[in-house]
Structures are given as C-alpha cells and as structure tokens.
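Practice problem: predict the structure.
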Amino acid sequence: MLTLKVVLSKAEAAKKFLLDNKNYNKKYLPKKAANHIFFPVLKKIKMPSSLFAVYEQAELEKSKKKPNYKDILKNKLSKAEFEELPNSYDIIGNIIVIEIRKPLVKHEKLIGSALLKTHKNIKTVLKKSGIHFGEFRTQKLSFIAGENTKVTEYKENNVKIKLDVEKIYFSPRLSTERKRIYKKIEPNERVLVMFSGSGVYPIVISKNTLARAIVGIEKNPVAHKFAKENLTLNNATNVALFLGDVRDIIPKLKEKFSRIIMPLPKNAEDFLEMAFKVSTKGTIIHFYDFEHETEIFKGEEKVKEACAKSNLNCNIINTVKCGQYSPGKFRICVDFQII
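Answer:
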C-alpha cells in the first residue's frame, strides 16, 4: 500500500502534516524500520521539503478497532437511551470521569461496568454531579463503578502527578497546551505559575526545560499538599511552592520573572495587576480566558486594558484556542510581552 517514508526525527511533524491535510490512512498502522517510519497515506500530496519524506509502497498491518463501551450497551438500552450516551469523557490516571444525563442515571452502574470492561487500565469510574463551583473551581463527583477512590496518579509530558480529582481542579485535556508552553521556555528563565494547583505546570516545566527557577502559588490547601508530594515524586529541585492568595504572596517575592503563566481562565484579568508587579521589560505572560468563538478578540482587549491601566506597553504575540469549554465557548490563551 502507499506509505510516506520519513526519518524518525521528522516523524511527529510529518504525522501532524498528514492529519492536518486529512491524508493519514487510519485503517492501517505505521511501521518503524531502522531510522525511518512508514505512515499509511490516502494519496500523494506535496510535502514540505524540510521533512525529507518520500512515498513508497510497503506492507502495513490493519488497525484493530478499539473496544468501545457503547458496543456493550447497544442491546441493553433503548434507542433513545443509547443516543444519550456521551461520546467522550476524561481519563485521569486510572480514573474515568464521565457526565451521565438524567435519562441514563438508572443505568449508571451498567455504564460504569461497560467502561471498566473496555479500558483495562481503568480502576474507577466517577460521574459528574454538578458544574465546577466555588473559589477553587472543583466539581462534585460520585462513585459508580470499580474501586471507590478519587485519588490517582496521572502521567503526561514526562511527569507523574498525584491528585484528588474531586478536591483539585485538573484537566488532562490541557496536556497539549502545557507542552506548547514549555517548548517556548528558554534556558535560565525564571518562571512564575499563578494558581499552580497540584503542581502540574511547574513540574512539567522543571522536567522538560532548562529553566533556572520555577515558582508556583496556590490557594487551595489540598492542591498545595499534593503539589509538594509531586515535587518529591518527580525530583523537581528547581521548583518553589507557596500556599496562599497570589495577592498576599506576590508582594513578598523579591524577584522579577521572565515568564508568567496564569492558568485560571475565569476572571484572570483581575490578577493581571499582580502579574505586572513581578514583571519587567521583556517578560512574557500567558493569560488564560473563556470567550465565545465569535468574541475571541475580547481576551486581547482585557490584556490591553489592564496594561493601559498600569501604564505599561505590551505586544500581543498571539492568541490560541486551547480547548472547548461549552458549546461555542473556548478556553483561550493570550501570549503577550511587556515592552
């Protein structure tokens, strides 16, 4: 069959290009050989010369269909109930967190059992029992199947994060965004993470960059407790963690930071003034926000307004979508620099 032969060092970029151009044949599995990998493709298209890729015929194995919990439930629910089953859910370590709509509540044990059968590494299934609420944006979760626990160990970007999924706000869907951020960090940078939670941002940065020092500030005492455990778990020796409100902690910091990350998308603009207090000319700030897809520009407006209020000039580097929050509404990140 038709494949694209790529050197291993260019594999990730080549696969992304194929997926972006809808030319990756998902019916087959890629095959590694020595210093190359063969990707299954649908047709020949022009590839960027920087990828040094060539088309070749090769024999590949067919993809095996992944087990789907819906297959188990197809004949156990009515047609109307089956259509209410969610297509996605969060996997955090060995825990699945799923939303079960009202028509399916009476079948939640059955749904939980199906999820356990189709995910060999999953030990616990929890259901969402409400929206994120309160100062720490936590979410009530109810046990429905497996082992009755809400503590797990999650892995991403070369780190391990232990956390209580009910008492700490955490999104595995932001792993790609965390990778995007750490790839921007230059050697010897001093990085501040406001609202650092269970320590995922500071530790990911510590393990994947040559940053000189990373500081994390978190108000949730449970999250802070787990973050300290996670420092030890990952041997992250260049991270300092502070428990408290950023409004109280930042005035006590005696250093300026070359990069500041603000992963609190709700009302984060209220804390931009605090970020400016530990910024200097050249500091890059990653400001997160929730905006409707037709009003993404409002995130930049909030940044510009805050800068003007503090008599600062800034340059908007870019604004990216980093996950859908609700229908039509996205989590965005405005990357900007103090100039």
